[in-house]
Automatic annotation (TrEMBL):
The keyword Signal applies. It comes from Rhizobium aquaticum. Keywords: Signal. It comes from the Bacteria. The keyword rRNA processing does not apply. This is Transglutaminase-like cysteine proteinase. Residues 1-22 form the signal peptide. Gene3D superfamilies: 3.10.620.30.
Length: 201
């Protein structure tokens, strides 16, 4: 784990030195306006209204220093290694059901738990954004985006390493709005041409 943190910190320093501009992509994703939330998140909000409220904790991107970065890495690693991957069909008998897991879950459940734990650790909800992406194989997938003053970082159950959004292989489709956890916005990926969307609609 310590080696992972040291490696990731070195990667962060490299990013801060200007690698993002080399790809002509912004460090933070750009929004294209309001869109519909995924069905699973809409249902989650009906069951958990207190977790889907306007964000009153400010709109400044989260300050990323060494201590905060270590917290992000630790929580991403711990959730990825303690939650067992299982589909909603296996757990709940339905195709799509968003929930904070205790022992098992699928991609959006991992992201919801990371969101909760990072908020408990002091990260504002306005900087913890559930995000829907498209994988290279065309399947939908959910990750957690942490919006920081050094860029938007992706916490993914499919990898331990935390990457800038522009360093991933995903096409970014939409995510929670920074000012209201119940609302979603479309994203300007700037790299993709496909318009197909997987099951996370």
């Amino acid at each position: 784990m310590q080696k992972t943190i040291r490696t990731a910190l070195a990667a962060l320093a490299f990013t801060a030195a200007g690698t993002v501009s080399a790809f002509a992509l912004p460090a933070n994703m750009q929004s294209l306006g309001a869109t519909n939330p995924p069905v699973g998140h809409y249902d989650y909000c009906k069951r958990n209204p207190s977790d889907c409220q306007p964000n009153t904790d400010g709109q400044q991107a989260y300050h990323l220093d060494e201590a905060n970065w270590k917290t992000i890495l630790r929580i991403n690693y711990n959730v990825n290694t303690t939650i067992k991957p299982m589909t909603d069909q296996e757990l709940y008998g339905v195709e799509e059901y968003w929930a904070i897991p205790t022992t098992a879950g699928d991609c959006e459940d991992y992201a919801l738990l990371k969101r909760k734990l990072l908020h408990d650790a002091g990260v504002p909800y306005s900087d913890l954004l559930m995000t829907v992406v498209l994988q290279p194989n065309g399947e939908g997938h959910a990750v957690l985006t942490v919006r920081t003053d050094r860029g938007d970082f992706v916490l993914d159950n499919m990898r331990t390493k935390v990457l800038l959004w522009s360093e991933t292989e995903y096409r970014f489709l939409k995510r929670q709005a920074t000012d209201n956890s119940a609302r979603w916005v479309k994203l300007d990926d700037g790299r993709a041409t496909s318009t197909s969307v997987g099951t996370l609609r």
